[in-house]
Amino acid sequence: MLSIVPADFQYHDTYFVVAHFHYVLVPGSIFSIMAAVYYWIPKWTGNMYDERMGRLHFGFRLWE
Questions:
Q1: What is the pLDDT of residues 21-44, one digit of tens each?
Q2: Residue 46's pLDDT is what?
Q3: CA distances to 23, 26, 28, 57 from 11, in Å
Q4: What is the distance of C-alpha 2 from the center of its chain?
Q5: Which of 36, 4, 1 lies closest to 21 in space, CA to CA?
Q6: pTM to 2 decimals?
């Protein structure tokens, strides 16, 4: 949307640009951090997560 020149001219220096940036990157970074936690913590501690709780957590984070 911001690659269209008339739209970019109207949206420049508005909250749309800032909000779009945060709505795209913040959930992606949180999802990546949680994926890393689910991958690395069992390797570091030697204790596996309960698969049912992991799937439940994934579902809640996805629909939040």
A1: 777 888 888 889 988 988 998 999
A2: 92
A3: 16, 21, 23, 37
A4: 21
A5: 1
A6: 0.57
> Could you give the CA distance from residue 62 to residue 5 in angstroms, rounded to a whole number?
34
Tokens representing 61 are 């984070």
Residue 62 φ/ψ, nearest 5 degrees: -70, -35
Output the 3-class SS for 12-56.
Answer: CCCHHHHHHHHHHHHHHHHHHHHHHHHHHHHHHHCCCCCHHHHHH
Structure-token pair, residue 64: 């939040």
Taking CA atoms, 18 is separated from 6, 9, 23, 37, 45, in Å, by 18, 15, 9, 28, 39
